[in-house]
Amino acid sequence: MKKIITLIIFASSLLVFDSQASLGEKMNEDGISWIMGSWSVERDGNKLEISYTWAVKDHIIASHLKMPGVEGFSVIGINPKTGDVEQSGFNSRGSKISGKWGPRGDMPMLKYTSINDTDETKTAAVAFRKVDEKTIEVHIFSADDSGNVGDSADYTFQMTRVKE
C-alpha cells in the first residue's frame, strides 16, 4: 500500500512540475518573442550589441552584451520556486549581474543589480519596445538603493536586427 501511495504522490508531483509553462511558451503568451535575435546600434563611433538566443530551446536563453570596455554573458530562465523569469551572469569587469524580468506597461523590462569585487552595487533597469520587425527601442532607467525604478527613462535609443 505504501508503494502505491508513494507512486501516486511521485506521479502527481511530475504532473505539477510539467504543468509550469516553459519560458518559450510564456514569451509567446506575453507577445515578446520578438526580442529573440541579435541587435546592434552605433552611437558616437561606439558599437553596442546584444543578443538573445536559445541555449536550451524554450527553456534557457543566453544573453550576450558587447560594448566598448565591457562584455557580458548571462542566462535567463524561470525560477521553479517563484515562477519569476530571472537573469544571472558576469561581465569582463568582474561584476556579477542578477535580475528579474517583468512588464513595464507593454514592454518587457529587466531590473538588475550588479556587484563588483569591491562590493560596489548598482541597480538599474532596461526595457524594450518593438518598433517593427527590424527595430527595437531601448529604454534605460535608473533605480534608487531600494530598487525602485524611475518614472521615465534616462536614455532611449533604437537598435536594429542583425542579419544572421
What order do the helices and strands come in, and which of them pair?
Blueprint (H helix, E strand, L loop, with lengths): L1 H18 L3 H8 L6 E7 L2 E11 L3 E8 L2 E9 L6 E7 L4 E9 L2 E9 L5 E12 L2 E8 L12 E7 L3
Antiparallel strand pairs: 1-2, 1-10, 2-3, 3-4, 4-5, 5-6, 6-7, 7-8, 8-9, 9-10
Properties at a glance:
164 residues, alpha+beta, Lipocalin, 16% helix
- By CATH, the architecture is named Beta Barrel
- Total individual domains: 1
Structural class call reads: alpha+beta
Mean pLDDT: 90
How can the largest sheet be summarized?
A: 10 strands, antiparallel, barrel
Span from first to last CA?
Answer: 58 Å
Number of helices: 2
> For the record, what CATH class applies?
Mainly Beta
From the alpha-carbon coordinates, what is the Rg to the nearest angstrom?
19 Å
Could you please say which CATH topology applies here? Answer: Lipocalin
H/E series, N to C? HHEEEEEEEEEE
Q: Could you tell me the strand content as a percent range?
A: over 45%
CATH superfamily membership: Calycin beta-barrel core domain
Strand order of the largest sheet: 1-2-3-4-5-6-7-8-9-10
In total, how many beta strands?
10
| Poorly predicted runs of 5 or more residues | 5-17
* Helical coverage, percent range: 10-25%
